[in-house]
Design a protein that fits this description.
about 375 residues; alpha/beta; FAD/NAD(P)-binding domain; D-Amino Acid Oxidase, Chain A, domain 2; 2 domains; globular; binds glycine; oxidoreductase; glycine oxidase activity; Gly_oxidase_ThiO; FAD-dep_OxRdtase; glycine oxidase
Length: about 375
């Protein structure tokens, strides 16, 4: 069987790699650092096609909903193969208004989601606090999205690393791909510091760095840029967590893990690849979290992390074939990388193995950008 090189060992590269290795493919994943330690590590792990849907994203919504449907089977298979729990939680999500102004905005959003047929409910402040008693007395209303779940994304990427290698995949960490080698309109492999690694198929899954890799003709470089997200992690007592659901407010979202971690995310900033956390970013997140859940004030702060969302020009992923034979893309997932990881692994691995792209993914190939300048 022909050789496959995957550029990028994040949740996309590892997921695609696992699906291919399970089918007996000869597949190698290259990561410039430690696999799974870039955006996949900093994410909140929200699986929230309903709560995160935004006006203008109508075309993307069916993909997000299908992505969400693939999670239960993905969790079952991955937990069984890796022998670990992924802390997949189906408690649901609240989007909480802290004043009348927020309530008006969220009511508009709620009507939009209902209009799109989404299963959301409107709760009073009293009903919100019945579900989450530690929330601020200022909570006046909320959207309840009972089908929006979450998972511990760090456990997912660690598990994927393990099962990918168990299934026979080769993982090359600290191995930057310097160039995608293309000759006569088809890929020949990837250039490493030690020379060319020959491959018949190259999957570009390098997240926010997908556009930076040399060798791609200008019109094939995916229009993907880094959108910085800073997050703060606090530690709750695991036996007495302050929160059970994912909760959003205007300025932040809070994601509780079963081990007591409470992730507060995330800034959305156009700062290129500047990975320095800022006082302003952290202040904004902590203030938002404190206004929503005053008891965070006393929690130990254990980590501040910075990640780069791979954001395409229309915020939707870029999946499948390119005009270069053998070059396949899996990038540009913006805010939806964790949610779309099983679906991406499924459609991209099937495309690599069969040459057929699932109709669901067909609107999301690079072709949609090719007539427009990057
Ligand atoms: N999906 C959450 C974020 O991008 O911050």
């Amino acid at each position: 069987m022909s050789r496959i090189a995957i550029v990028g060992g994040g949740i996309m590269g590892l997921g695609i790699g696992w699906y291919l290795a399970r089918e007996g493919a000869d597949v190698t994943v290259f990561d410039r650092g430690r696999a799974g330690r870039a955006a996949s590590w900093v994410a909140g792990g929200m699986l929230a096609p309903h709560a995160e849907a935004e006006p203008g994203e109508e075309r993307l919504l069916p993909l997000l909903i299908e992505g969400h449907k693939q999670w239960p089977a993905f969790v079952e298979a991955l937990e069984e193969a890796a022998g670990v729990s992924l802390d997949y939680r189906t408690d649901g999500t609240l989007v909480v208004a802290l004043d009348a102004d927020d309530a008006r905005k969220f009511r508009f959003w709620y009507e939009y989601l209902r209009g799109m047929g989404q299963p959301v409910e409107w709760l009073s402040g009293y009903e919100v606090r019945k579900r989450e008693p530690h929330l601020s007395r200022e909570a006046v209303a909320a959207i309840w999205s009972g089908h929006d779940y979450h998972v511990d994304n760090r456990r997912v990427v660690e598990a994927l690393k393990r099962v990918f290698v168990q299934a026979g995949g080769a993982l090359r960490e600290e191995t930057p791909v310097r160039e995608i080698v293309i000759e006569g309109g088809r890929v020949r492999g990837v250039r490493l510091d030690e020379g060319v690694f020959e491959a018949e198929t190259v999957v570009l899954a390098a997240g926010a760095w997908s556009r930076e890799i040399e060798g791609l003709p200008p019109d094939i470089r995916p229009p993907v840029r880094p959108v910085r997200g800073q997050v703060v992690i606090l530690q709750m007592p695991p036996e007495a967590p302050l929160l059970h659901h994912v909760v959003w407010c205007m300025d932040a979202y809070l994601v509780p893990r079963s081990n007591g971690q409470l992730l507060i995310g995330a800034t959305v900033e156009e700062m290129g690849f500047d990975a320095t956390p800022t006082a302003g970013g952290v202040f904004h997140l902590l203030r938002g979290a404190w206004e929503l859940l005053p008891a965070v004030y006393d929690l130990p702060l254990t980590e501040i992390a910075v990640g780069f969302r791979p954001t395409s020009r229309d915020d939707a992923p870029i999946l499948g074939p390119t005009p270069v034979e053998g070059l396949v893309m899996a990038t540009g997932h913006h805010r939806n990388g964790i949610l779309l990881a099983p679906l991406t692994a499924d459609v991209v691995s099937r495309f690599v193995l069969t040459g057929e792209l699932d109709p669901l993914a067909q609107p999301f190939t690079l072709a949609r950008f090719l007539s427009q300048p990057a």
